[in-house]
Each structure stands twice: as C-alpha cells, then as structure tokens.
Amino acid sequence: MSDQELPKTYDPAQSEQKWYSLWLSRRYFHADEKSAIDHFSIVIPPPNVTGSLHIGHALNSTLQDILTRWMRMSGRNTLWLPGTDHAGIATQNVVERQLAKDHIDRHALGREKFIEKVWEWKKDYGGRIIAQLKRLGASCDWDRERFTMDEGLSRAVREVFVTLYEEGLIYRGERLINWCPRCHTALSDIEVEHEDEQGKLYHIGYPLSHDPSIRLVVATTRPETMLGDTAVAVHPLDPRYKDLIGKTVNLPLTSRTIPIIGDSILVDLEFGTGAVKVTPAHDFNDYEAGLRQKPELPRIKMLDEKGEVRNDIPDVLPDVMKLIHGKPAKKARGIVAELLHEQGYLIKTEEHAHSIGKCYRCKAVVEPYLSPQWFVKTGPLAKPAIKAVEDGKVRFVPKGWENTYFDWMRNIKDWCISRQIWWGHRIPAWYCDDCGEITVSRTDATACGKCKSKNIHQETDVLDTWFSSALWPFSTLGWPTKTPELARYYPTSVLVTSFDIIFFWVARMIMMGLHFMKEVPFKDVYIHALVRDAEGQKMSKSKGNVIDPLVMIDQYGTDAFRFTLAAFAAQGRDIKLSPERIEGYRNFANKLWNASRFVLMNIEKDFIPAKMVTQDASLADQWILSRLHSIMQEVRSALAEYRFNDVASGLYQFIWHEYCDWYLELSKTALNLDRNSTARQATQTTLVTVLETVLRLLHPIMPFITEELWQMIPESVRTKKAESIMVAAYPVPDQTQINRRIENEMQTVMELIMAIRNIRGEMNIAPSMQITAIVKVEQKELGEHLQKAEDYIKTLARIKDLRIGDRETKPKTAATAVIKGAEVYVPLEGILDLAQERDRLIKEIAKTSKDIDVFTRKLSNRDFIDKAPKAVVEKDTAKLDDLRTKHKKLEQNLEMLE
RNA sequence: GGGCGCUUAGCUCAGCGGGAGAGCACUGCCUUCACACGGCAGGGGCCACUGGUUCAAUCCCAGUAGCGCCCACCA
Predict the structure, then answer these.
(1) CA(A401)–C1'(B53) in Å?
(2) Which residues contact A499 (CB under 8 A, 6 or more apart)?
(3) Which of A163-172, A490-499, A667-676 shows the lowest per-residue confidence on average (mean pLDDT)?
(4) Residue A516 and residue A228: Cα distance in Å, rounded?
(5) Proximity of residue A698 CB to strand B below 7 A
(6) Strand B contact with A872 (CB < 7 A)
(7) Cross-strand partners of A241
(8) Does the pLDDT at position A576 exceed 80?
C-alpha cells in the first residue's frame, strides 16, 4: 500500500464490514472441542428473540468479547457460545399484538396455528439481534448458536423436568399464586414488580350476628374483596376484641355469616382498627391464615381469570351481584364502597400509601389467584448452591453481590413454573380421564401409566421461560448426551451479566448445574453496571431516552462505542452514557489512526526491524519501551481482574499522552538523521514495534481499527507472521525492558521542556519564534544527561540556541524557571514584559510556598518522624529540600527583576 | 420495615491511609510537514456534614442529611 492513500480520518464503516467477514470466513471464532489446550468458555446470556440490541446487551456483549478475544490471543481453546431465549410471555405478547393488527385473535386461531405463527415470526425477526451482535464485533462461535426451544434444548428441559418430578422436587397443587389478568398466566414471585401507589384505607363496620347494633370495624385497601371474606381476624390478646373470638358477624351485601377468629401472625395490634377481614382466595396473608385455622377457612373466589368480578359468588345479594358482576377489580372497588356507604357500613376512608404488584412483562396489576399450578421444591436445590458460593467454587465479582445472592437463596420460596400461555415448553404431564392419574414422561405418553387407559390428555400449561434458561450452560453443550463439548467446556470460565437477573437466572443456573452436572456452571460471575441515560434514568422506550447502539455505531464506529462501554464499566456503578462521550473516544480512534499514519510514512515499505543494541537506541527509545512494558503488565492484570475501565484508561493514557504527545515528537529528531544511521533505524524500529504491540493490546476492545492498521504494518514486524491480529499473540511484558533510571532521566528532560513551554505560554511568545534558552545545572552529571537530550529539547521547546552547563549565568533580562537540579533562563531582550514575568514568578512562588507549608508542618511533627515508615519520611524530607531550594531561587530571581 | 450503594473540578466519573486525578466543558495562543476528530499553555475542588480512630483521613469507624436501587405478606 502507498502512504499517500491513507486518509486523514479513520472510516469505520468499510473496515468493520471487511474484517468481520474475513474473520468469519477463516473460522477464527470457531472453537475446536478436540483441542486439548487449556480452555476458556463463556455462554452468552441469551437475549430474547423478540429483542433488538439495546445498550445493556451492547455492554454485556462487549465485555464478553473483550475477555474472549484476550483469551483467544493468549492461546486458549476459546469458546463463546451464542444463542437466544424463546422468552415465553414476551414473545407471545409480541406476536399477539402483531396478529391483532390483522384483527386476528389467538383464541380464534387455536393453539397449534398460533404456535406456527410464532415460529414464522421467529424465522423472520428472530435473527435480528444476532445480526446486531455481529455488528458489535462479537466473536461468538456462530456454528454453535442455540435457541432455548430448539430440539436439543427441549430434550434437556424434558429430562430435567421428569427427573425432578421423579425425585419429588417438582409437584402440582392448588395454591394462591401471582396472576397476571392481562397475560392470563401465573407468574413467579420475582416476576412481580412492586410499585408504591397512593390508595385509600376503608374502614368498614361488620355487624355482630348476636347484636347487629354493635359493629366490628375492619380496615382494608381493597373493599371489593369483602365479597370473598370468610372470617374476621383479631389478635388473641387484644383486650378490645378477644372476647369476640368464636362469635360471628354478618357480612354486609351478602347473606353470609362469618366467624371471628384469633390470629396473632396476621393481625398487628398497632395497625388500622386491629381487626382484619380475611379473604383467603385473594390475599397471601389471608391464605396462610386460612390454612392455620382448624378447620381451614373456606376460600371463596370472587374474581375470575380476567381479574373481573364473577357472577357466581355464593351468598352475594342479587341486587349487588347485578351491579358489579363482570366489573374489573378496580371498578368494583368503587361500587362496593358506594354501596357500603349508602347502607351505612362505611365508617370512614383515609389516604394510605401501599405497594401494588405489577406484571414485569405488561405492567398490569397482578392479582393473587387461587389455581392449580406446578412448582419446583427449591429448598433441597438451594442448599448446595448456597454452599458452592460460600466455599468459593463460584466467585462473584464484585464480591458484594454474594450477599444479595445469599439473602435471596436463604429465604427462597418454591418456584411456580407453570404458565398458562402457549409459547414455551409444554409440560410433559398427561392426565388420565378415567382414573385421574398424572403420568409424567420423557417421551410423549400414549396411555395412562397406572390404568393403561388411552383416554389421556396432555397438560396445556408451558414452563416458565427461566426454567430452560437455568439449564443453558450445559443444555447448550449437548446435555443430556455426554458430548465432547460438554466434557471440554463445562464448567464455563465466567458468566458476565448484570445484577437484575441474579435471582431469575444466576441462582437457578447454579442450582440446576450442581444438581445435574454435579459441578458449578461457572467459576466467576462478573456483575457489571446497569446502563442508564445521561439523567440516570433506566432507559426505556416509553421515556424516549433510549440510546440506540446501532445509531451510535453508525455515527462513531463500533470501536469507539466499545471503548466507551469498556471505559465506563467500573464495578458497582451505574453507567450514564451520552453521545459526547462516545465522540471523545471516536477522537481517540482517530488519534491512533494518525499516529499510525505517521509511523507508516516514516518507515520504508520493505522495512526490516533493526537488531536493537542499547547504544543504538536513544533515550527516548528506551524510555518508551520501558513505559510500554509497564503498561502491558497493568493491562494484563486489569483484564484478569475484570477491571475493564482500567484497561481502557491505561491504554488511552499511554497511547495518547505518552506515545503520541511525547515519543512521536521525540522521534522526529532521529528520523531526520541520515538514512543509514543506526540511530534512525533504532528509532524506526521502536516506533513501529511499540505501535504493533499497542495494537495487539488494544485489539480486544477495538477489534476493527486495530486489524485495519495491523495489516498495514510490514510483515517483518508482526509477531509470528500471524495472518490476522485476532490470532496473534497477546503481548507479554519483558521485565528487562522496564528501566527506572531511564524513566527518571526522561522525566527530567520532559520537565525541562515543560518549563520552557510554560514560559513561552505565559509570556505569550509566538510558537513560531525560535528562542534561546540557558540551563544552569547544579551538577555536571545532570548537564551531561541534558546535553545528550539537546535535540529533543530544541525541537520540542522550539529553541535555536541552547546552552547547558554548571557555569552558565543568568542574562540581564530573562524569564526564569526552576526544575529539580537546574535553573532555566529564557533571555527575552526586547520582548521581555517585566510585569508579566513578575506575575508569573509570583504565581509560581505562591504555589511553592503553599507546598512548603504542607511539608514543613508535617515534618515538624515529632510523632510523624517517630512513627511513620522511614521511606515516607525520607521521601518527604527530600521533597521539602527541593521545594525550599526552588523557592529560594525563584525569590532571588524575583528580586533581580525588581 | 430490612438490606445495599452513592455524595470528589461546571458535567460524567476514577482514586480509597502519606503532596487532590481523568475525560468532556472552559480560557489564551497556534491552520508547525501524523492528526483542528489536532497541538501547547492555563483556570477551576473546606473530596456532603458532624464526631471518632491514627503521627497522618477524601480514604477506616460511628452518626446526620440528601439521592438511588433491591428485598418484604404494613390489612
């Protein structure tokens, strides 16, 4: 390629497309299950098929890709297994809505036809998020892409279900569960989101049966459910009411007489009136209280599966029934309250804040609903899962999340796994119409397991989506078949996810993994931040604050976007993302691009790296190499500890502020030397070597631009002549290259240059003007060092005449700066503005005095001298000396000026 | 009600026992032959508040205030 062809700005679009398809065609993403090399494996948290890539996926996938690419470059047998989740309720809702546009109702369509429609939908749109992951540069092994409803995973689901049933860990029973009246299905406890709402507390007087003139006043937020009341509870020790226990009240609006019971658990003496209406079919506490009674309280359902008032509630007066049947719960509340008011039973209402449950999929208000459901008995599964984390077999990063996990797991309730929807894994249970037996089977049953009757029908419920996700780490690898993949890649190395699904997913994977594989599903769980918008709101479409990753990618390029995500992935923090930030990193990509342009322009096309000998390598060369190897070390340890932000900022800092700002400028002096000069060759070699190494270090975060640039670097420089950067080796630091002495020497040179630049800047000396500088050193040795760096100083500080020595003196009119071990004078005859120089010096002196104060105070403290570590005292003493010297010299210079 | 987290430069955030940092924004100068998606030089902070531990506290401990999140059956 020709240098002239390289444009001044990096164009992400063409490069991304080109390299991704090349990587795919060369099968770099493919993991070889036969390879015996140490493995590294990750399973992707499967996004919903209905999903389109949002910023959370982008962060999650970027971090996984960084780890995957890093490990692959480090020579591990690396698998990142992708796939999607069938997302039962969510997908069913999406397809239902789609059908509704054509005025088709799923019930009219029928179950089988509807499921066909969902599969069709999946075929058309399900691949969308996969395509988007590819745009992000995800290096997943696409050959192994799985779907939670595909054949293999369905087999795993059935195997797990039947086994747990046989072990008595799955059971069926009628229970009070959370019911979404909109989705028409049961939900598990964690699928209910609680929100505070301002409601009313209604005080209702229930007349005592034996003396209706006396009323027992109950307080409730849901008066409509009184139609299902089967008791009133009071505290057994409550002096106001305890004598009423065993008596009855007449339930208003009905012909029902219900008992007054004592229940110390249900009733809080302090709250409301101290008397509670008990509706066992519509409230979890009341349900439990009903079970505690001997005999159990009857459970009267007053709402149907749509959340509307039934028309067959026993005992309700016909007039009342006529008014409210078929009304949604909230409307019924108003009607009942009005009726109670009219008839004089409503004592008062007061404002009352309470939390209501909403469906996490559709946000409809969830009703407690009595119905037959399937459950997983979680206790026995949770126990080993708790232990695995306690024993460190699974490690949460950051560790704090372990508490969240423990809290939930130690109080875990049985998991309601049946859903009354159509899209999902249908429960493999068959009911016998003759003898009522339930047959649970790995294969489709054709006859009753007990009476052999062929008169059986399958359960219509499907399983909770999270049931199949819980098996993901092993079901995707072929389980229950003992595949080579399973043996090779399970347990996986790390799970990367966000905290909102620790309960839904992480905990359940650990339980299922331990139970069926006898081994944890992953060793590390890296919990990353949640992405929010610039105002800190959780992004949601309804708020209109969604940052679309694909728009960002189009606008700034995938690499800039990925770098932004990595830079903001600090542990335990929410990420607030704004486009300006991405723009900043787009500029960084461009900086890298132009630095590479510079390097490539300054080496010959057939460049052969020089064999570096120390005497050929300049101070700058040695310095940048030392810095490079330090950075390598930092980057590697940051990656190993999931400190992605440190990886990003470390590389940013090094590339921009050390390599570009300093080394590239310093290299110019050597590049101007004669073609055959060994010094020039050494610098060329250093330039290109550092660039090549940095590209490899950066590749996991910025895969595209690094590949584009790496391919332009002469083959002779690229390690092992790999054909792509993504299969080149990840850089390993060489301790012998790290040189403290060189770094210190360079530091002094840089300080000198900065001091002169400061004078130039503050004195308003035109950048184009070449000036004279005189450096008076305290010791000859330092002078010699600085003399060796003479060219650097001249070029970077724009000096035409530089004098360095221990016998130099200050010219009559000059600006002064003091650095460690030397004074710098810039003679400014004719231009010197005395007032300006005075101000500059005063500012500098003030700064120095302030520092001196701090250190003097510290060092005059006896206890500090006695008790602080020696090294600290010594360091501070030396520092104070330097500061005093500097201060004195500056003052002298100020005096001379006046 | 229980738990967790946060409060550092105008903004977004690192740092977490020994002289307060970054990016963006801001000010001045500069179209210097890698880059104006740029360069150089600057300005800007009682590190929320109050106590305590320590020779030393932005950092550790306790409390206060504000903000955020999670869990929970407050009728």
Answers:
(1) 29
(2) A401, A404, A527, A530
(3) A667-676
(4) 44
(5) no
(6) yes
(7) none
(8) no
- Sorted by sequence, the CB contacts under 8 Å of residue A4 that are 6+ apart come out as none
Which of A 555-614 have CB under 7 A of nucleic chain B? 568, 570, 572-576, 580-581, 584, 586-587, 589-591, 594-595, 597-598, 601
Asked if strand B contacts A694 at the CB level, meaning under 7 A, the answer is no
Confidence (pLDDT) at A462: 95
What is the amino acid identity at position A652? Answer: Y
Kindly determine whether the C-beta of residue A664 is less than 7 Å away from any atom of nucleic acid strand B: yes
> Which two tokens mark A251?
């339930």
Angle at alpha carbon of residue A342, lines to A338 and A343, rounded to 5°: 120
CB crowding A558-582: b at 16 or more within 10 Å, else e: bbbbbbbbbbbbebeeebebeeebb
Tokens 């670097």, located at residue: A713
Instruction: Say if residues A869 and A827 touch (Cβ distance below 8 Å).
Output: no
**Is the Cβ–Cβ distance between A249 and A209 less than 8 Å?**
yes
Residue A637 Cβ < 7 Å to strand B: no
Taking 90 as the threshold, does the pLDDT of residue A419 lie above it? Answer: yes
Angle value at C-alpha A227, between A222 and A231, nearest 5 degrees: 90
CA dist., res. A378 & res. A414, Å (int): 5
Strand A248-250 and strand A257-262: pairing? antiparallel
- Residue A257's nearest CA partner among A217, A342, A314, A202 is A314
- Given a contact cutoff of 8 angstroms between Cβ atoms, the answer to whether A206 and A252 are in contact is yes
Phi then psi for residue A365, to 5 deg, are: -70, 125
- Token look-up 């009133």 returns A232
Quick one: average pLDDT of A722-728?
Answer: 92
Measured CA to CA in angstroms, residue A819 lies from A598, A618, A802, A883, A887 at distances of 32, 23, 16, 10, 11
Mind listing the pLDDT tens digit for each residue in A604-642?
877 888 887 777 889 999 999 999 999 999 999 999 999
CA distance A215 to A240: 12
- State, as a whole number of angstroms, the distance between the CA of A839 and the C1' of B43: 15
pLDDT confidence bin for A1, thresholds 50/70/90: very low
Residues A865-872: contacts with CB under 8 Å, at least 24 apart? none
Cα distance from N-terminal residue to C-terminal residue, chain A: 62
Residue A859 CA distance to nucleotide B55 C1' (Å): 10
* Phi, psi values for residue A220, rounded to 5°: -150, 150
Asked if A730 contacts A74 with a C-beta cutoff of 8 angstroms, the reply is: yes
Is the pLDDT confidence value at A3 over 50?
A: no
Protein residue at shortest CA distance from C1' of B18: A872
Say whether pLDDT at A536 is over 60. Answer: no
pLDDT computed for residue A572 by the predictor: 61
- Tell me the CB-side half-sphere exposure of residue A821, using CA atoms within 13 A: 17
The C1' atom of B9 and the CA atom of A299 lie apart, in whole Å, by 64
Backbone angles phi, psi at A816, to 5 degrees: -125, 145
* pLDDT digit string, tens, across residues A459-508: 999 999 999 999 999 999 999 999 999 999 999 999 999 888 899 999 99
Which chain B positions have some atom within 7 A of a protein CB? 3-6, 12-15, 18-19, 22-25, 28-32, 34-43, 54-56, 68-75
φ, ψ at A295 (rounded to 5°): -75, 165
Mean pLDDT (chain A, rounded): 90
- pTM equals 0.93
pLDDT 10s digits, A833-879 = 788 888 888 888 988 888 888 888 888 888 999 999 998 999 899 99
Structure tokens at A172: 């069926």
**CA A181, C1' B67: Å apart?**
35
Check residue A724 and give left, alpha or beta (phi > 0: left; psi -120 to 50: alpha). beta
Strand B reaches within 7 A of the A326 CB: no
CA separation, residue A334 to residues A254, A256, A338, A801 (Å): 17, 21, 6, 93
